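Q: Is it fine to ask for two folds in a single conversation?
A: Yes, each is treated on its own. Send the first.
Q: Here.
A: Result:
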Amino acid sequence: MSDLNKLTIAEARDALAAGKTTAVELTEACLGAIEASSALNAFVHGTADKARDMAKAADARIKAGEATAMTGIPVGIKDVFCVKGVPSQAASKILDGFVPEYESTVTQNLWNAGAVMLGKLNQDEFAMGSTNEASCYGPAVNPWQGADGQKLTPGGSSGGSAAAVAADLCLGATGTDTGGSIRQPAAFTGTVGLRPTYGRVSRWGVIAYASSLDQAGPMTKTVRDAAIMLGAMASVDPQDSTSADLPVPDYESLLTGDIRGKKIGIPREYRIDGMPDDIAALWDKGADMLRDAGAEIVDISLPHTKYALPAYYVIAPAEASSNLARYDGVRYGRRAKLGQGDGIVEMYEKTRAEGFGPEVQRRIMIGTYVLSAGFYDAYYNRARKVRALIKRDFDNAYADGIDAVLAPTTPSAAFPLGAMDQTDPVQMYLQDVFTVTLNLAGLPGVSVPVGQDKQGLPLGLQLIGRPFEEGELLNQAMVLEQAAGFVAKPDRWW
């Protein structure tokens, strides 16, 4: 078989089971593609030797009849996941040299299922950003090109994961979604990104940004692949008190393609001023596709949506300022060179000033400010109350019989690297306008590529589901995926 790296997870699983290829051959195809794609800067720590050993073990497992759906499947791991014996620094200078002596629960679940690790993937530093430009490794690059060969952002923070999947460097990848960091890059690269319900996937061993919002999920080429990969990643975890003690369904078996009678809500508050015609037309088209498949399309109101973005950018930095206080140069990671007479205070100051990039420093400062004694009630407590109201909006919609909400994933297609003014963070934060609501509410959401803009760049729509009903959500997403028939791939330039 040729072009093995272009297979989907489902196709590769079936080929492995039928003896048409081996995990070693599949892995070598991906390693070759990675080596030929350094211009994308998607992989930042290679693990080729480890991948070959894991592939051999997977082939032995398949031969013994002990394979699962992920056995022998080569995947990339976002740098925010701790992997034992592999550099894991969340794309930050402050964790330079950090090699964990333990394994995150998500990656351990994948290895238990027989998946093969190709390497660590680029991201925004500590998962803070929407363009992958806040990375100590430099930005990942979108495989899709803009006008006149412009290099585009793959989105963030899981930009490296999205670029790697879109460019067929791996069959699937892990990502994390705190305010849209799986779904937005998926929309920018024409891939599928699933953010599960908060608690569905363990956060243990995932380097924290905002603990009440972070959630790991799969980034794949198809909805079916997302269902397969989520089944391997999800589990209850005694090491994570927020993980849900619920059985993990066979998500793939729930992909029936039947959504007759389902009610899909269209929130009027998401029709923001200045929405591009391409996005608005695609949204209407997506609603028509679901209607044609037998779903009922219902206009709904989520009245507190307009407060979501400011509430998110109070809560997330507040939690970040607390989580990132542990990086001080004392126990692990980077320590600044000290001058004669420097004490522990100078060590903290110099280490954090050198180790944290501008975006991380900005969010730490914002978070420290909103948690300070004089402003705690005015900002943080008020944001928490708004968060509760946003969650109640969704609860009310679902109580009225709505099965899922359909909305755009992003307010635009991918834009050129450097287009966002880094001195105006609000411009970048507005990229999260459609995605942050479900993070605040703890709900599952999936972005599906549905069409292209006037330049031929991919555009995505997202479905927001009921809590812990990822199976239903993925089934609805598969219907949308099949109706859209999005098969476009980026022209290879890299």
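Q: Second one now.
A: Result:
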Amino acid sequence: MSRSAMLLVVFALVISAACERPESAEATAEVAVTPVDQEVDWAAVDVAMGRSGTLQDGGVYRFGMPRTDLSVTSEGVQIRTSLALGSWVGMVPAGANEVVAMGDVVLTDDELNPVLARLQEGGVGQAAIHKHLLEHSPEVWWTHVRARGNAVELAETFRAALELTGTPAEGAAEGETAPELTIDTAQISEILGHDGRDNSGVYSIGVPRTETIRSMGIEVPPSMGISTALNFQPTGEGTAAVNGDFAMIADEVDRVVAALRQNEIEVASIHNHLTDEEPRLLFLHFWAEGDAVELARGLRAALDETNSQPGSR
């Protein structure tokens, strides 16, 4: 065979091999990737947690751990558990029996550091340790938690941490009788542009932001504690204590503070709920007690300074 003929054969073999390859490294990666199983055995998670969760919007499986064992007053108001004393943990599927977990745990001074140590031992981190109220007795701390991992193992960690507190077991006596709401909830909803619900004697309104929020590799649903929360606890005929938090991006903070203060609503704290979220969010906790409708107008002024979803009213 002549030298030119040999070169033609080699060239043909090279072309043939190249045609058999994927078009690019990206194509190889696409072929190799298969969707992960998003199913989580929630019954097993319930057992590990020692209580039952509920499935909410956005695929969030949420556990409520109300601190009905605590009797807390703030500025002369007896705080209902559903206003500011409800510990909770939410989980969102993030892989084969893996979840992203977030929550807020209410702890006394004596409980705080033992609980932190147990959470850390189980791979659960903290994003904030702060106050939802100004003057209050006894002193309690609100601790935001976050983790990604095996759902059952994380539930076991949360349960072990809760056992270091006075948090009542599921099914324990509530200790509170929910009173009738003695405020004009229809007018409050009209002013704020969003409907609320009777949450054990507290009128609660949630207002999501318009942006998609991402953290720990997932899209975080609003029910994972990243919405603005506006809560009204009736304190008399037509009056209420208001407490909750505004979810804000950085350039909204000063405007929200100004709107609240102009309407005689106090600022209790400004902090984070997460550590790696995009876009970056800050949360402002507020407090006031007075005419419920007037307070709703003040909260609406602050709400208008945020990029929140428009209401249905």
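Q: Anything structural to flag on that second result?
A: Two points. The first strand starts at residue 54 and ends at 56. Residues 37-176 form a domain with the Alpha-Beta Plaits fold (CATH 3.30.70).
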